[in-house]
């Protein structure tokens, strides 16, 4: 019987974060794609090494789940170098966008060609089986969109063909899902807060508290209300606002004021959150402060996010703490803290390690889907890895 490999994939607006087989097997790809209308030049492609694969993802994707089937895409860093790259638009639903699926399939195919678990046939075709844990914004789950999303993935074969990609040119991966678990993002964040990587409870004091989790993403904001160890579906709220529009505004103002073209929203996030030279860019070789641009735009967004918190807390007055998670929280942390100190003084908490906040969803999906696999007895390839590790010790 073919082994099924665990995949935990968070297709975030900013980037895809994934864990395969084990939590340490991480993959990070900027969520940018570009449909390819022309052949890519292949100069020097054979000289590129394994490390440069992620900068040169060039694929054809065939799947009945896609509206535009059999199209060719540049994915991630390679897509940012084109004039027709796309990022998810504000107002769109993650579960209904081809881009979400293209990113998902690309990540699984990259894992399949490099993990050594799935063997290629003589004609370079790899059959790869996965048990997938992923998630959707609370708003989409409440609207029932998770059901359609899951059924699109199950029961079909999704093929990724590597075109001009170093190390993998000409390889084809047939992806099948043995099971797909789609979790509400707010609940996933809660699981990550209370469980360690081995699914042991670490924050016992949180288990029976009523807490809020405000997950600020690129396209949406979810505020989960956790009580009695579950998301209270009636009280939880999803808002059609994230950081994407503000990042685009910053990008546009930098372009018009300084004549500097930033490749993607990821570049804007880097300017806002990096440790050194924060809020600075290079203009004609000179280090230039853009704090005036970032400041007024992010403060306006922080005020809206703070209003969401205030409204939900008013309706759930016995809440004890609100945790801010997601990539958007890392961007807005300083502004929301300053507003809270000046205004209501709620008991709020951010993750000082921005990496932890960014990887929270992918890690939570890994914990949840691993727990599902253990309880259901799915034929999982990671059990074989565990046996090999035990023998080595």
From TrEMBL:
Gene3D superfamilies, A to Z: 3.30.420.40
Residues forming the Alp7A-like C-terminal domain are: 211-349
**Taxonomic superkingdom:** Bacteria
Q: Which InterPro entries match?
A: Alp7A-like_C, ALP_N, ATPase_NBD
Domain named Actin-like protein N-terminal: which ranges? Answer: 8-187
Which CDD domains does the record cross-reference, listed alphabetically? ASKHA_NBD_ParM_Alp7A-like
Please identify the protein, giving its name as recorded: Uncharacterized protein
Organism the protein comes from: Virgibacillus profundi
* Lineage per the UniProt record: Bacteria, Bacillati, Bacillota, Bacilli, Bacillales
């Amino acid at each position: 019987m073919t082994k099924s490999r665990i995949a935990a994939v968070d297709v975030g607006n900013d980037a895809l974060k994934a864990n395969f087989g084990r939590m340490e097997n991480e993959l990070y790809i900027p969520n940018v794609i570009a449909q390819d209308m022309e052949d890519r030049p292949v100069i020097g492609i054979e000289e590129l090494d394994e490390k440069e694969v992620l900068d040169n993802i060039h694929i054809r994707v065939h799947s009945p789940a896609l509206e535009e089937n059999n199209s060719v895409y540049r994915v991630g860093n390679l897509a940012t170098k084109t004039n027709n790259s796309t990022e998810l638009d504000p107002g769109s639903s993650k579960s209904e966008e081809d881009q979400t699926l293209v990113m998902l399939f690309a990540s699984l195919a990259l894992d399949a060609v490099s993990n050594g678990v799935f063997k290629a046939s003589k004609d370079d075709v790899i059959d790869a089986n996965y048990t997938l844990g992923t998630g959707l914004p609370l708003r989409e789950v409440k609207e029932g969109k998770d059901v359609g999303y899951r059924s699109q993935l199950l029961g079909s074969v999704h093929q990724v063909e590597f075109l001009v990609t170093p190390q993998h040119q000409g390889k084809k991966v047939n992806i099948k899902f043995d099971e797909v678990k789609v979790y509400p993002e707010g609940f996933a964040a809660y699981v990550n807060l209370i469980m360690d990587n081995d699914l042991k409870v670490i924050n016992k004091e949180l288990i029976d508290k009523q807490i809020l989790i405000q997950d600020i993403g690129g396209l949406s904001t979810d505020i989960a209300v956790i009580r009695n160890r579950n998301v209270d579906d009636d009280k939880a709220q999803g808002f059609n606002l994230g950081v994407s529009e503000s990042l685009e505004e910053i990008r546009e103002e930098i372009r018009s004021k300084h004549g500097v073209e930033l490749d993607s929203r990821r570049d804007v996030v880097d300017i806002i959150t990096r440790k050194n030279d924060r809020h600075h860019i290079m203009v004609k070789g000179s280090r230039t402060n853009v704090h005036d641009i970032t400041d007024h735009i992010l403060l306006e967004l922080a005020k809206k996010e703070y209003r969401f918190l205030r409204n939900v807390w008013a309706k759930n007055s016995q809440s004890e703490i609100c945790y801010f998670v997601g990539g958007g929280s890392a961007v807005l942390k300083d502004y929301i803290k300053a507003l809270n100190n000046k205004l209501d003084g709620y008991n709020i908490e951010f993750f000082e390690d921005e990496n932890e906040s960014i990887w929270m969803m992918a890690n939570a999906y890994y914990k949840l889907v691993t727990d599902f696999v253990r309880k259901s007895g799915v034929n999982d390839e990671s059990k074989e890895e565990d046996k090999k590790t035990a023998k080595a010790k």
